[in-house]
Design brief:
Blueprint lengths: L1 E8 L8 E10 L8 E5 L6 H8 L6 E3 L3 E2 L2 E2 L5 H10 E4 L13 H12 L4 H14 L16 H13 L5 E5 L7 H18 L2 E6 L2 H7 L2 E6 L2 E7 H6 L4 H8 L6 H6 L30 H5 L5 E2 L4 E3 L12 H4 L1
Parallel strand pairs: 3-9, 3-10, 7-8, 8-9
Antiparallel strand pairs: 1-2, 1-4, 5-6, 10-11, 11-13, 12-13
Helix pairs in contact: 3-4, 3-5, 4-5, 5-6
This protein binds iron/sulfur cluster (SF4).
Length: about 325
């Protein structure tokens, strides 16, 4: 039941009445140890806010529970947060802005060890050397500054930094979206290898379903702050139940001409609703190709629609997509 709200002011400046924008609205999910949960959705869906809330990195009002091995991370005080931050680390989206340009690569990677642990200088040096090798950088590059690295190499530094405290969970916030396609594949393969090597659990944020298909064990699809579908990877990609997920998947280009022939593109008309004035019914109703009258009045609840498959749509019955008719 995680929710995150931000105070905002409407047009009218300082004297306008303050109101709240609910970026993440009462969502629940589980990530199994050693696996990857992808959270996907368009800009403004709440996916990044939800993931960064896990690492206690959002400034909004957060409510609900975030349980790591049974312990709620939300009420932790400053000292306990240090312990939690060793276990939950983040790889940020933009390797150009997430590294301090005035620090050498080795100082950047060592920073979490300095602030969160009391390891000796020699222990830290040994860890940093090991991490440079683990992420495919040469130890001689340790003394260089971020601007002396390529984008892919910078993201490797960001990954090494996230690994430095031996975390259990890593939030990967669109870690390849700022990189060239060829470099994306290298970084994704590196992340997969490190996951196996160190037994890591990933929460992987992305708007790119091609990337998600390569990385995840399960997927949660978010729309306007809500999870609208949540399933194991195969189940979601082979049988998307929510009309929004089906439309997202239909937009993924395929290199297979047969598949291209078979799959019809489902267009989503219009824009998402105003997040400060959400409709009382289904938030997707104004854009949904199969919306009914009841969709505008009653908000659908996320319900089980098959083993390990949940969807929030009035028309979803027992693993049957409401779009089955219009896609053929
Ligand atoms: Fe479309 Fe209605 Fe399902 Fe919402 S509840 S996704 S509007 S069919």
């Amino acid at each position: 039941n995680l929710s995150v709200r931000f105070g905002v002011r409407r047009k009218g400046g300082f004297f306008a009445k303050p109101t709240y924008l609910t970026a993440v609205d009462d969502i629940s999910f589980t990530v199994r140890k050693g696996e990857t949960l992808a959270i996907v959705g368009e800009s403004g869906s709440g996916k990044t806010t939800a993931a960064l809330a896990i690492a206690r990195l959002v400034s909004g009002l957060t409510s609900g529970k975030i349980l790591l091995e049974g312990r709620d991370l939300l009420p932790l005080d400053r000292e306990d947060l240090k312990d939690m931050r060793q276990k939950v680390q983040v790889i940020f989206q933009d390797p150009y802005s997430s590294l301090n340009p005035r620090k050498r690569a080795e100082d950047i990677v060592r920073e979490p060890l300095d602030s969160l642990t009391d390891k000796s200088i020699s222990e830290k040096r040994e860890i940093v050397d090991g991490l440079f090798k683990a992420v495919g950088l040469h130890p001689e590059q340790k003394r260089l500054f971020p601007h002396q690295f390529s984008g892919g190499q910078r993201q490797r530094i960001g990954i090494a930094r996230a690994l430095s405290t031996q975390p259990e969970v890593i939030i990967c916030d669109e870690p390849v979206s700022a990189l060239d396609v060829a470099v994306q594949a290298q970084i994704l393969n590196l992340l997969r290898r490190l996951q196996t090597e160190f037994g890591l659990t990933y929460v992987f944020i992305s708007h790119d379903l091609g990337v998600v298909q390569h990385m995840c064990d399960s997927v949660a699809v978010m729309y306007m702050g809500k999870i609208v579908e949540h399933a194991d990877r195969l189940s979601l990609f082979n049988n998307p139940l929510h009309p929004y997920t089906a439309a997202l998947l239909s937009a993924v280009p395929s290199v297979d001409p047969m598949l291209r022939e078979q799959s019809r593109r489902i267009l989503i008309p219009g824009d998402p609703p105003d997040p400060l004035d959400l409709p009382k019914g289904c938030r997707f109703a104004s854009r949904c190709p199969v919306a009914e009258a009841r969709c505008r009045d009653v908000a659908p609840r996320l319900k089980l629609a098959g083993s390990n498959h949940r969807a929030a749509c009035h028309l979803v019955e027992d693993e049957t997509s409401p779009l089955a008719g219009i896609r053929s």
